[in-house]
Specification:
The complex is a heterodimer of chains A (944) and B (386). Chain A has 42 helices and two strands. With 944 residues, chain A is mostly helical. Chain A has a two-stranded parallel sheet with strand order 1-2. The two termini of chain A are 87 Å apart. With 386 residues, chain B is of the alpha+beta class. The longest helix of chain B is centred in the last third of the chain and has 27 residues. The chains are: A mainly alpha (944), B alpha+beta (386). At the A-B interface, helix 14, helix 15 and helix 40 of A face helix 1, strand 11 and helix 2 of B. Chain B: It holds the Pfam family WD40. Chain B: This is DDB1- and CUL4-associated factor 13. Chain B: Belongs to the WD repeat DCAF13/WDSOF1 family. Chain B: One of its GO terms (biological process) is maturation of SSU-rRNA from tricistronic rRNA transcript (SSU-rRNA, 5.8S rRNA, LSU-rRNA).
């Protein structure tokens, strides 16, 4: 039935063991049983038990139970070992004896069914020869007299319940199990113990003893921890009922009973345990699921960190005090020196002296000889340093390197420029220097390719030169142009200013007003003539030499000439009139005359200018303004003389740059710096024409238009004061002047009007034909981008024989090709974006420079073009952003501090739905807490 | 053991009879655990700043060690002699040698990998726990820094059976049971590293030249495949910031990847080099040298004044913003590689391209739907084993 080589071996071993085992000790007996059980369990999956003792009959003798197998519950009871033929291996004599003995005892103890079933009937059942050692055939084995070993009297036995008991009594209390374990060997003992524990009489337990049909399926090897089944069965088993009974009548009993009932009903047979692999797999699965769940708790935290624009790993390391004062307050002198110093500083006397007035400090401040010596030493040291510095400077000065000096010069220039900006004096000086340079340039023409080198180069031709040389030549020319042009402009301005100033100075000082007027007119005439005569001086270089500029200039010149001619006529007529008037005035000289008025006016002008010079310190502008004022007067006068003259601004401009422009300028000035200036200006008017003052003012206001309104309103009272003053000043000429002025003023009318903006623009760009230019430009661009196809050219002998060529002209395919190309071009032109936009050129040429700034595809994290473009639209540099946002814009993804250990993430509760303010709070919280904390960049959120 | 920034070893630990296969330090840097082919695990006390007999290192040079040990635990190497102390563990069964060891973060446990995974305690001479997964040899083991009770292991490919399974298993240490699950991978996973900032994610360095980032909860699909190496990836470790990791490969390069990028950010190369770690990157190589690299090659070392720092931040931000423009991109991505590596990568490209083409053609000639497209993230995974 069971054939197992192991078993045989085991038996062999056992036999040997038996031979040696005299006298068998209890431990070794135990070991034997262990050994046996080990064999059996190894042999098959069936369960086996060893019954150690049967103590119920008071038989203290130790017996070793034989092998037995429990196949099933049903099998157990009807097994009768006696009926079976013994065919197993021959058991050792000792064992057999014991088995017999046991059988006897069992039979005598017939009430115990369990034990019956356990009888040694299921032992090995095949024949085996008597072992050698028993047959005494072999002398190798020691003879043993007594196989049975008797335990000494004092030995007690102990049984421990096996784990298997749990299998049948599933829901049993732990207590009951303990109970069983402790107490199965002896019925009486058990009963006693029960009595002890429960406090019930022994009889209470008697009836229940054999209720328990134990089915044990034992997965464990037999040992002292896993006692055999028969140890457990029967005798001292306690059912749940036993334990529950005493609770009867107590609170919660019914509940307990109910649950017990439920358990009993439900109880199903236990399934055999799964194979180990499966079990492990299940375990793994369960733990994995569990851990999955566990680890999911990190999700919101991780999500937050990932979404954060910046992770912070710079923990706040406690640096202690942050201010110098705080640090200083903690300072304690330690070294000798420090102690000395602190003693001096904290000296009471000194402190007090300091607090009072410091006079006593002088007394305290006695200098010792050593101190003086120290001081001298220090001075000497400084002097040495100075000397060294000097030596160094000398050395530097001696350096011959051109590069070095060039660089030095450059630095010096830079410094000079910086200084110029700061210091007006220096600026003046620099201007002088510049002027000198220009003069030098004019003189030497150093940069006009007049040098030997340049000449040689030009002689050889610029085209054959390399890039560098050409650039150098161009640079030279450019410098020349720069110098000369600047010179011109500067000179023009200055000279004209000077001359005009001088002229007017002369005018004002020397000549009478009438003379002045005539002179002025003459000069204007002269200038106009000059303008007319001066022609054809078209600049040959620079911007003005460009064709469209030339054209514009010419056009403008023509119109100017016309105007100048007109003006000339007018001047002449006015001059004649003036002459006529002078004659009249000379006649009226004795009485009141305009001349006197002019004289008075003149005087007043001078007076007022003087006054002004005293009054307001506008320095340089004063004289200018005066001049302007006088000009105004002149203009007025001329107005008076010829009512119908319309002052065309262009004409005036042509006439001189003095009059009207400066008048405008003065007005602008007035508007600009309100207040005193205005009053003074108006005061001049007032002084000029006594009673005309109001008139004048109204005119002035009209001219100055809305701009003036406020200031003039404010100034009115002041103005009146002036009037009064003036009136008082020139009281003598008052009456005479009135009349004439009245006449004069009656004639004056505000004829001048400011040209409209459009007018001005038109005038400014009078010569430019912008539209035409634009069209041409557009055509050019179109031609460039979609070039016109070449016209087919008849090349004699190519494509066809010449005679045929002569006959037929161009071959048809050539014409067709050309036609196709043309059509293609037209199509392309039509398809252009700017085809229907008259005033727009949209270049469709691929711009290589712009190409650099485009990506070929949309970069990865972005999903739409707009978003990407938006993201790189705004610059992030410090030049474009306020300091407050710069940090947030430029912050790197990870901020860490050198040397700070970055710890792994720490768990904290994060609400996945929180936003904005909450983040901020959590960030702050974290900032306080230490350890691998990650803070949300709150600033950035706020900014956005 | 070396101090960071010095040439000579500070300490030398002698005791192992065979090659040392794994080394790790405890979180506080006081205890060093090493294991090797002599079937032993040794625990060393790291003497802190009490160097008496090494004349080269004064106290000053030792002190920073205590700091850096934590940041770069695996940098520590050791050769010979001196301060070895204390325990000596030997398992009572004759096991094949240990292949890897890792220490728990902030705990007393450490795990060794060999024939099985053993969990040890500092204070006990027997493993606290041991896990087994089939009969595979476990190659590497790593504790999860964020969730200290979870560890991951990777194991050798099953050699005999063809549709092999290579389990990289995830097991839980503290409980008596282990939670382990495995994904079968077509090729061997050499090493594993957890993301210290994202406890559910780990990255596995694979023999097939790529690294695979996984979510521990969804092992049937990699979350990201990091390609660029041209030979087996031997080792991997995460930066403590969790934003990037570094890999060492058999192709003698060290590459730095963003945690979510498919291609590497930076590559370092030299003759012979194999594994690495750290915020500075430290690589050990066959030629018995340790090399220290900067994680950001162009980064300036030393103290930065605030203004300078701001300026650099700005420049960095500008670079980052315009990195997509073609010219900037070219400069940013340009790396000079040794010829063999460059050629190998070109070859790899060609091969993958050819493979792709072939598959396309097959797909075109087969019934629609019969050849479903499998993303690369799933392609290499055979199945998830429970």
């Amino acid at each position: 039935m069971w054939v197992c080589p192991n078993c045989q071996e085991a038996k062999l071993g056992y036999r040997r063991y038996c031979r040696r085992r005299v006298p068998l000790k209890p431990e070794s007996a135990c070991a034997l049983s262990l050994l046996l059980s080990f064999f059996t369990t190894e042999m098959a999956e069936t369960k086996r038990k060893t019954r150690d003792y049967n103590n119920r009959q008071g038989n203290k003798k130790r017996k070793v139970s034989s092998f037995k197998t429990l196949k099933s519950k049903s099998e157990k009871n009807n097994n009768d070992g006696e009926r079976r033929k013994r065919t197993g291996p021959r058991l050792p004599n000792a064992l057999r004896k014991e088995l017999e003995h046991m059988g006897r005892t069992n039979r005598s103890n017939s009430d115990d069914e369990e034990i019956d079933s356990d009888d040694a009937n299921d032992v090995y059942e095949y024949e085996e020869a008597i072992p050698e050692e028993e047959s005494m055939k072999n002398r190798r084995f020691d003879p043993v007299e007594n196989f049975e070993y008797e335990l000494p009297k004092e030995f007690k036995d102990e049984n421990v319940a096996s784990e298997d008991d749990d299998d049948d009594s599933d829901g049993e209390d732990d207590g009951s199990r303990e109970y069983q374990e402790g107490d199965e060997a002896d019925g009486s003992r058990h009963a006693r113990m029960l009595q002890d524990i429960t406090g019930l009489p022994v009889e209470a337990f008697e009836g229940k003893k054999r209720k328990n049909d134990v089915v044990l399926s034992e997965a464990y090897p037999e040992s002292e921890y896993n006692p055999s089944r028969d140890v457990l069965n029967g005798d001292g088993r306690i059912s749940i009922q036993d334990l529950v009974d005493p609770l009867h009548g107590k609170s919660g009993f019914s509940k307990l009973r109910k649950s017990m009932h439920r358990m009993e009903k439900k109880s199903t047979p236990i399934l055999a345990p799964l194979p180990k692999a499966d079990r492990e797999k299940l375990e793994r699965k369960v733990t994995y699921e569990q851990s999955k769940k566990d680890i999911t708790k990190w999700e919101p935290l991780v999500k937050r960190n990932r979404e954060a624009p910046t992770l912070y790993f710079d923990e706040d390391v406690d640096l202690g005090f942050s201010t110098i004062g705080a640090i200083a307050s903690e300072f304690e002198p330690r070294t000798e020196f420090e102690k000395k110093i602190s003693a001096l500083v904290n000296d009471n006397e000194v402190l007090e002296a300091h607090k009072k007035d410091g006079a006593r400090l002088l007394e305290l401040n006695k200098i010792s000889v050593e101190d003086v010596k120290d001081h001298q030493d220090r001075l000497a040291k400084m002097r040495t340093l100075l000397f060294r510095h000097e030596m160094k400077a000398k050395r530097i000065k001696k350096i011959k390197s051109k590069t070095y000096h060039r660089l030095l010069k450059k630095d010096g220039l830079k410094a000079a420029v910086a200084e110029m900006e700061m210091n007006p004096e220096a600026a003046k000086e620099l201007a002088m220097k510049q002027e000198f340079k220009r003069a030098e340039e004019r003189l030497t023409l150093k940069h006009k390719n007049s040098s030997k080198w340049a000449k040689r180069i030009l002689k050889r031709g610029l085209d054959v030169q390399d890039e560098g040389t050409r650039a150098a030549i161009a640079e030279q020319l450019h410098q020349h142009a720069l110098l000369t042009r600047k010179m011109k402009s500067m000179k023009d301005n200055s000279s004209s200013d000077d001359s005009s100033d001088e002229d007017y100075g002369d005018d004002i000082s020397d000549s009478s007003d009438q003379d002045r007027a005539s002179k002025l007119l003459e000069k204007a005439k002269e200038k106009t003539l000059g303008v007319i005569n001066e022609d054809g001086e078209v600049p040959k270089s620079g911007v003005l030499s460009l064709p469209f500029m030339v054209r514009g200039l010419q056009k403008r010149k023509e119109t100017a000439d016309e105007e100048a001619k007109l003006a000339l006529e007018e001047y002449e007529s006015s001059l004649k009139q003036l002459e006529g008037k002078r004659v009249i005035e000379n006649v009226k000289k004795g009485t009141a005359s305009g001349r006197r008025i002019f004289g008075a006016a003149k005087k007043h002008v001078e007076d007022s200018s003087n006054k002004i010079k005293v009054d307001n310190y506008y320095g340089s502008s004063d004289s200018e303004d005066n001049l302007e004022a006088k000009e105004d007067i002149d203009v007025d006068r001329s107005n008076n003389f010829k009512d119908e003259i319309n002052f065309d601004p262009d004409l005036l401009r042509e006439e001189s740059e003095i009059g009207h422009n400066s008048f405008f300028k003065s007005l602008e000035d007035i508007v600009k710096d309100a207040g005193p200036k205005t009053t003074y200006e108006v005061a001049i008017f007032a002084a000029d024409s006594w009673k005309k003052a109001n008139n004048e003012r109204s005119k002035c206001e009209k001219v100055a238009d809305v701009n003036m309104k406020n200031s003039s309103k404010v100034d009115k009272p002041v103005l009146h004061d002036h009037d009064i003053e003036d009136v008082e000043d020139g009281s003598d000429s008052d009456s005479e002047g009135q009349m004439v002025d009245g006449i004069l003023s009656s004639g004056t009318k505000p004829t001048y009007e400011l040209p409209s903006q459009a007018d001005l623009i038109r005038r400014a760009f009078a010569g430019d034909d912008v539209e035409d230019d634009f069209e041409k430009d557009k055509e050019q661009v179109l031609n460039e981008e979609n070039p016109e196809p070449e016209k087919p050219v008849l090349v004699p002998g190519w494509g066809q024989w010449t005679n045929i060529q002569q006959k037929n002209g161009l071959p048809s395919w050539m014409l067709q090709e050309h036609d196709n190309a043309r059509k293609k071009r037209e199509e392309a032109l039509k398809k252009r974006k700017d085809a229907h936009l008259k005033h727009v050129i949209i270049s469709e040429k691929l711009d290589k420079k712009a190409e650099k700034l485009h990506t070929k595809t949309l970069p990865y994290p972005y999903t739409s073009k707009e978003v990407f473009e938006q993201s790189i639209r705004m610059p992030i540099g410090p030049e474009f952003n306020p300091v407050t946002t710069i940090g947030a814009l430029n912050r790197p993804e990870v901020v860490k501090k050198a040397g700070v250990i970055i710890k792994p993430i720490k768990f904290e509760d994060v609400n996945p739905h929180e936003r904005g303010e909450d983040h901020k709070r959590s960030g702050q919280k974290k900032k306080k807490s230490t350890g691998g904390s990650i803070k949300r960049n709150t600033n950035k959120i706020k900014v956005k | 053991m070396f101090a960071f920034g010095t040439w000579l070893p500070v300490f030398q630990f002698r005791g192992h009879q065979g090659a040392v296969r794994g080394l790790t330090a405890s979180t506080d840097g006081r205890i060093l655990v090493s294991c090797g082919t002599d079937c032993t695990v040794r625990l060393w006390n790291v003497p802190l700043a009490t160097v008496t007999d090494s004349d080269d290192s004064s106290d000053n040079s030792v002190k920073p060690l205590a700091v850096y040990v934590l940041v770069i635990p695996l940098l520590l190497k050791y050769d010979v002699l001196r301060h070895f102390v204390s325990f000596y563990y030997k398992p009572n069964y004759s096991s094949p040698f240990f292949r890897a060891v890792d220490h728990q973060w902030n705990g007393d446990l450490f795990a060794t990998a060999g024939a099985q995974v053993d969990i040890w305690d500092h204070n006990r001479s027997q493993p606290v726990n041991s896990f087994e997964w089939g009969k595979d040899t476990v190659i590497s083991v790593r504790f999860n820094p964020g969730e200290p009770n979870v560890l991951a292991t990777s194991a050798r490919m099953n050699k005999c059976s063809k549709p092999c399974k290579l389990p990289g298993e995830v097991s839980r240490a503290e409980q008596a049971m282990s939670w382990e699950t495995a994904y079968g991978h077509r090729t061997k996973t050499n090493s594993i590293a957890w993301n210290p900032m994202e406890p559910m994610n780990f990255t596995a360095a694979n023999e097939d030249c790529s690294c695979y980032s996984y979510d521990a909860r969804k092992l049937d699909e990699a979350r990201c495949v990091h390609k660029d190496h041209v030979s087996a990836v031997m080792d991997i470790d995460y930066s403590p910031t969790g934003r990037e990791f570094v890999t060492g490969s058999y192709d003698r390069t060290v590459r730095i990847f963003q945690f979510n990028a498919g291609h590497s950010r930076e590559v370092y190369h030299t003759k012979r080099m194999q594994s690495c770690d750290g915020s500075y990157v430290i690589s050990g190589s066959d030629d018995t040298n340790l090399r220290i690299w900067k994680a950001k090659a162009s980064e300036q070392l030393g103290v930065l004044l605030p203004r300078e720092r701001r300026n650099q931040e700005y420049l960095e931000a500008v670079k980052n913003r315009y990195k997509h423009l073609p010219e900037v991109k070219r400069i940013v991505r340009h790396r000079h590689l040794p010829k063999p590596i460059y050629k190998a990568s070109a070859l790899r490209r060609i091969m993958t391209e050819a493979e792709r083409k072939k598959e396309e053609r097959r797909r075109a000639h087969s019934a629609p739907g019969s050849m479903p497209r499998v993303p690369l993230r799933k392609k290499r995974i055979i199945k998830e084993i429970e």
